[in-house]
Amino acid sequence: MSKFILPLVALLFFISESLFVTLFSGELYNSEQIFVPRFIMVFLVFLTIYGSRKMGVIYGFILGLLFDAVYTEILGIYMFLFPILCYLISKAMKVLQTNLFIVLIVSVLFIALLEVAIFEVNVILHFAEMSFSEFVEVRLLPTLILNLAFTILAAFPLKLQMEKFELETRED
Amino acid sequence: MPQFFLNKRLILLLVSIIILVALIGFSLREREKVSWPEQFLSDTIGFVQNVFHKPVTSVAGFFENLIDLQHTYDENRKLKERLDEYVTLKTQVQGLENENKELREILGKKDDLREYSPIQATVIGRNPDRWHEIITINRGTNQGVKKNMGVITSRGLIGKVKNAKPFTSTVQLLSSKDPKNRISAVIQGQKEIYGVIEGYDQKRKLLLLKRIPYNEKIKIGSEVATSGIGGVFPESLAIGTVEEVITDQYGLNQTAYVKPVADFYDIDNVMVVERLTPSVDEMDESFSNQEGDETP
């Protein structure tokens, strides 16, 4: 039974992004700022740090593939970025201590990295016509604030869940 | 140099970058159909989204209704004022419709670009990264949805079907920034002026109606609708009203800023419209070729 919990949680995070956007689009999105939920990335950060690197990379790949196929319909971008970022997180955590505050900072940092990378890809593919400063003002900062709030809310339950999962896999 | 090739991680990275570029190229080209793994993934996720969507939106809808209740009094008063206008308008429309029908019968013309059959659908998802404004609806090819069909809400046109899968489809909104996202439109008035809806001003929340001949005089506030000459869309689906007109960089064309009638953010129920008049493929092609020539 417990084997299915992690994929279910992952699926829940995956769907929550689109639900968030459909629900709050009326209120949040009529403003000039653009808030992008990056809940999957938060999930991956916690999975990589409190679970294992291998798990993080595999889940990053699968969730990225789903994201590309279902939401953006351009294959490859998220499928490539999520595993790479997970790998980098695990490298970064070798230097840093694992406490909740540091994890918060790391997750915000990597969400920023993801946003910038996606922005650059879209500029190359001509889906975006923004200057970088405009991008920071309109997209990056609101997105970071939203996701920081989400991370603070979700941090403790996520951490517990991941640690439980890690224990179970070790016992196996 | 051999050491460089021995680095397994570096090789892995390089190979994955090559695959990445290939995949992006694969998915960006014009394709009639999405590949079956994609179809399978989207439909499976679509099923789960469908399950989650209903309860969540009904809870959210309840709170929205509570907020709406506060404005009921004002709205009611305004609506009553409008009602008188409506009655006269209705009789007028009735008369015109009858006349139109009679004239058509005299001419023996059966096809009407205006006629369409709607397919009702519910929005079950939206692309969270808002670079591509794409929504997912719960109807697919099994229900008759095809690529490039127009999608409307009760207020007006919102976009077109980007890809249709067996049980779900994705809709690209008019506000999406994509060079391929073009819709032939007409400014209604004494004289019909044609143009192409192309692009969206994110800051001002206005659509851009481009390629209007430079000598046309456009009244601010005139209605913009689909022209039906693009091949797939029916005629006169409402798009918006003209807000501002500017001359292009070289003075050869004009661009009108159009305020959309439909709300691109608060979308819940939509209709996919299928034009009853079949499009002539050759005509279609020559039209798109013309369009292609105009682009620099």
Automatic annotation (TrEMBL), chain A:
Segments crossing the lipid bilayer: 34-50, 57-81, 101-128, 140-158
InterPro entries tied to this protein: Cell_shape_determining_MreD
Keyword Cell membrane in annotation: yes
Keyword Calcium listed: no
Topological relation to the membrane, as annotated: Multi-pass membrane protein
Pfam family, one: MreD
Compartment(s) where it occurs, according to its Swiss-Prot or TrEMBL record: Cell membrane
Biological process annotations from GO: regulation of cell shape
Cellular component terms per the entry's GO annotation: plasma membrane
Keywords: Cell membrane, Cell shape, Membrane, Transmembrane, Transmembrane helix
Family statement: Belongs to the MreD family.
Designated name of the protein: Rod shape-determining protein MreD
Protein species of origin: Peribacillus saganii
TrEMBL record, chain B:
Residue stretches making up the Rod shape-determining protein MreC beta-barrel core domain: 123-274
GO biological process entries: regulation of cell shape
Domain of life: Bacteria
GO CC entries: plasma membrane
Alphabetical UniProt keywords: Cell shape, Coiled coil
Coiled coil segments of this chain: 79-116
Pfam families linked: MreC
InterPro entries on file: Cell/Rod_1, Cell/Rod_MreC_2, MreC, MreC_beta-barrel_core
Family per similarity comment: Belongs to the MreC family.
Annotated function: Involved in formation and maintenance of cell shape.
PANTHER family given in the database record: CELL SHAPE-DETERMINING PROTEIN MREC (PTHR34138:SF1)
Protein name in UniProt: Cell shape-determining protein MreC
Organism: Peribacillus saganii
